[in-house]
Design goal:
The protein is an alpha/beta fold and 249 residues long. The protein has two domains: 154 residues, Rossmann fold; 79 residues, SIR2/SIRT2 'Small Domain' (2-Layer Sandwich). It is built from ten helices and nine strands. The strands form two sheets. It has a six-stranded parallel β-sheet with strand order 3-2-1-7-8-9, sandwiched between helices. It has a three-stranded antiparallel β-sheet with strand order 5-4-6, with helices on one face. β4 and β5 form a beta hairpin. The protein starts with a helix and ends with a helix.
């Protein structure tokens, strides 16, 4: 199928749907300059991931986690939503897309204009921190200032609990509320669009197949093939931003 035919087919699936769910992975944010964790230059090519159990058990592991966090922030804080994010925001604003389920932690969907209550963050959010005991919210700037002075570890002002970036680490339980919301949205949609995800990280990668089982059409837009391509109604191995822009316009 030609590129124009693929775009036409994609556009027709969107236009013929009443309730669309968008699912995004790291691939949509690479076009904003944020490396995929697994790609060359990604953090996993430089460091072994810190397990949540090690983070909790060791002050030194917590310090190392914050060192990595503030090193990576130089890239994340400079990133801006790209054409793909803006195209998705347009679909949300039109009422066609009911929710955006994301594996990303960069907050770029919200920055592009998607209302916070329509973004379901499966792996948390790296733009703020929270107490692991009471859930209190913390801005990163004061934590960074204290840490850069003498590597002071943040603790909760309310309950003295451990404060951590609001992301889900290896070995940490997936957020129950967000997983339940994502599951409900997946089963209720009539079109599920997976964008920029290798679809290998479970349980999140189980949502496309769940949508198919529920009777929805499935579109996969990713630069590289995925293991779930055979069950998709349409597969586009194309650049994300230009493709979504062409379809939405």
């Amino acid at each position: 199928m030609s590129e124009s035919a693929l775009l036409d087919a994609f556009r027709e699936l969107i236009e013929g749907s009443k309730r669309v769910v968008v699912f995004t992975g790291a691939g949509i944010s690479t076009e904003s300059g944020i490396p995929d964790f697994r790609s060359p230059g990604g953090i996993w090519t430089k460091y072994q991931p810190i397990d949540f159990g090690d983070f909790m058990a060791s002050e030194e592991m917590r310090r190392e986690s914050w060192r990595r966090k503030f090193g990576a922030d130089k890239t994340i804080s400079a990133a801006q939503p790209n054409a793909g994010h803006h195209a998705i925001a347009s679909m949300v604003a039109s009422g066609k897309v009911t929710s955006v389920i994301t594996q990303n932690v960069d907050g770029l969907h919200q920055a592009s204009g998607v209302p916070d209550d329509q973004v379901i963050e499966l792996h948390g959010n790296a733009t703020y921190a929270s107490c692991l005991s009471c859930g209190a919210y913390y801005e990163l700037e004061p934590i960074r200032d204290a840490f850069e002075r003498d590597e002071t570890l943040p603790t909760c002002d309310i309950c003295s609990g451990i404060v951590k970036t609001a992301t889900i680490s290896f070995g940490q339980a997936m957020p129950e509320k967000e997983m339940a919301r994502a599951d409900a949205e997946t089963w209720a949609c009539d079109l599920f669009i997976a964008i920029g995800s290798s679809l290998v990280v479970y349980p999140a990668a189980g949502f496309p197949a769940a949508a198919k089982r529920a009777g929805a059409n499935l579109v996969i837009l990713n630069r590289d093939p995925t293991d779930q391509d055979p069950i998709a109604d349409l597969v586009l191995n194309m650049e994300i931003g230009p493709t979504l822009s062409a379809v939405v316009e």
